[in-house]
Structure formats: C-alpha cells, structure tokens
Design brief:
The protein is an alpha+beta fold. It is 41% helix and 17% strand.
Length: 106
C-alpha cells in the first residue's frame, strides 16, 4: 500500500488559500454583563496612487539613477525598492521600466 506523504501538506495549503481568500470577517462577543463587543478584521482598501511617474520625475538629482530617497516620492516604488535594486542603493532606468511593466503600468 502506497502512502501519499504530500496529502497533509496539500490539505494545509488548501486551507490556507481558503482562509486567505476570506479577507474580511466580523465576530461578536457578549460578556456576562450583557455588553457586546464587535470585532472586525481584514485588509484596508488599496490606495490608488495613480499612474507611475516618469523616470525623469523620480530622478530629481539627474544622476541617471533613482535613490531610495527619490523613490520615496512614489510609495509603491519605495515598497519594492530592495527587490528592484537587488539590495544596492539605486535603481537604473531599465530596472524601473521593467518593474513598471510588471505592475501593468506603462
């Protein structure tokens, strides 16, 4: 008889995916004095930052690269800075354009 060692792992992944999908939840608790507490949890609505600025707008010092300080002008870029820059201090035009394309921004 064969035993599928991945079945418990697969089931736990499925349970995680289902729970991650149900982002917002609400529960109520009433204490013995009749006081009701409502607990709501979930993710806030995403902020729409609008279209990404051009590379030239971000490169304020005209160095040909975007530093972490310059990236702070556009929060989604600052959020992904280390990933885009591969843990160095600047982002090149090519890296910025590749990231922008991956975000469905042109």
């Amino acid at each position: 008889m064969k035993t599928n060692l991945f079945a418990p792992f697969t089931l736990s992944l499925l349970a995680f995916a289902v729970s991650a999908h149900a982002q917002d939840s609400m529960s109520q608790h009433t204490d013995r004095n009749g006081n009701t507490t409502t607990i709501r949890s979930g993710q806030p609505a995403p902020v729409n930052y609008g279209p990404a600025p051009s590379f030239e707008q971000l490169d304020a010092d005209r160095s040909g690269t975007v530093s972490r300080d310059e990236a702070s002008a556009y929060p989604p870029l600052l959020n992904d800075f280390d990933f885009i820059a591969h843990h160095v201090n600047t982002i090149s035009r090519k890296q910025y354009e590749r990231w922008n394309a991956s975000q469905n921004r042109q």
